[in-house]
Amino acid sequence: MNVQDALEQPAVISNSFRDSYQPHDVKGKLLTPALLPQSVKDGLAAKGHQLDIRNVKGVGSVKAILIDPRTGVLMGGVSPTGDSYVMAW
Questions:
Q1: HEC string of 3-57?
Q2: What's residue 39's pLDDT?
Q3: Tens digit of each residue's pLDDT (9 = 90 or more) over 19-75
Q4: DSSP assignment of 62-89, as one string?
Q5: Is residue 46 included in any domain, yes or no?
Q6: Which domain holds residue 32?
Q7: What is the domain-level CATH number for residue 65?
Q8: Is position 29 within any domain?
Q9: pLDDT the model gives residue 58
Q10: Number of domains in the chain
Q11: Within a domain: 38
Q12: Quick count: other Cβ atoms within 10 Å of Cβ 74?
C-alpha cells in the first residue's frame, strides 16, 4: 500500500484528551467516519466508546512523506478531508 492509499483508509481519532482551548474540556468521544464497517462501530460502542460519526472520508488533516530505505525515493500523500499537498526534494 502506498502513502496515498494508506491516508485514504477510514481512521478513528480519540478526543479523550484535554482540549487546548478554555475551558480545556475532555469530550471523551471517538471521531469515526461513517464509512467504517458497521461491525467495527458496533464493537467500539460495545466496549463503551461514545462515537461521533462523521460523514467524511477520514477524520483529520494528515500529510505524510515516506522515504524508501532501499531506493531513497520520496513518496507523499494527503488525507482526502481537505485541499492539501505535500512537497519533497
A1: HHHHHCCCCCEECCCCCCCCCCCCCCEEEEECCCCHHHHHHHHHCCCEEEEECCC
A2: 96
A3: 777 777 777 788 888 988 999 999 999 999 999 998 877 657 889 999 999 999 999
A4: -EEEEE-TTT--EEEEE-TTSS------
A5: yes
A6: 3-78
A7: 3.60.20.40
A8: yes
A9: 62
A10: 1
A11: yes
A12: 14
82: its cell numbers: 481537505
What is the model's pTM?
A: 0.67
41's grid cell: 462501530
Write the pLDDT tens digit of every residue in 74-83.
999 998 877 8
Instruction: Tell me if residue 59 falls in helix, strand or coil.
Output: coil
Q: What distance in Å separates the CA atoms of residue 41 and residue 24, rounded to the nearest whole number?
A: 27
Taking the chain, what is the end-to-end CA distance rounded to the nearest angstrom?
Answer: 22
Q: Is residue 31 part of a domain?
A: yes
Contact between 58 and 82 under an 8 Å Cβ cutoff? The reply is no
